[in-house]
Description:
Blueprint: E1 2-9, H1 16-21, E2 24-27, E3 30-33, E4 36-39, H2 45-54, E5 60-62, H3 66-77, E6 80-87, H4 95-109, E7 114-119, H5 124-139, H6 144-157, E8 159-164, H7 168-172, H8 180-183, E9 190-194, E10 204-209, H9 212-227, E11 231-238, H10 242-255, E12 263-266, H11 269-275, E13 280-287
Amino acid sequence: MKQVAVTADSVATVPPEVAKEYDISLVPFHIVMDGTDYLDTTIDKEQLYARIRSKENLPTTSPPSPAEFLEFFKRASQQAKAILVVTITSGYSQSYNSALNAKKLAQEQLPNTTIEVLDSLTVVGGEMLITIEAAKAASEGKSLPEVIEVAKRVKQSVSELALRLSLFHFEHYGRTGKAKSWAKAAISTVTVLETDAASGGTARPLLREKSPAKAVETTLNVIEERTKGKRLHAAITHVSVPDEAERLKKKLLSRFDLADEIYVSEMPPIGAVLNGEGIVEVGFYGED
């Protein structure tokens, strides 16, 4: 039996092959469309994306329930003495509180399993990097306090920047925060919003550019400024624009010294619902 199992909600967008390598479990969100409740792992993506493009009668979402987290805890407890759960920022979702409630239930049902819940204060690529680094530490046989220390160190270092052609869906679900005025702007721009510990776990407007190319270049400058020559850890996610994600990856490969591979993954359906198509996002941090 290993020391620690690492679990996250599906917003972490960990690539399947990486999840398998480091034994990471992902707990799915719910999407309710036309009165039917789907897990974001089972919903028909073509039907969902058509609805998203229509911008009418949009679906609603909800996090995993405490009972669903608890079921994952029960399975993980068969293989590990302790469990670390990483969730999407509590600034956007009740996933963190749901996992905390599941932890309370587990104290009675799984008295021999220690469970800790970490609010990532970030999303997708940022949450992915926290989850993967924690799982790597767990795979090395580190104790729960040691795995938590790794996760918290990445949490405080990681930045998450999202390049958006439109803020329509993000605003519809009430996530724009301090960038709300940008969603109402008459001029079409590419917006870059930040969500991480530095932003307090909510959306912070970072920059606007008139073209995607310029937005990417300015974002690369931000990454360079923040990493200050350190080796780069990065994770790129997207909705329906794999070519754009690969172009960003190539630019990072040509410009930065990498500490690890650059993970590239398409967001799960929950990410498509909340962001719409066309978003490209990068989580990153620098390592000495």
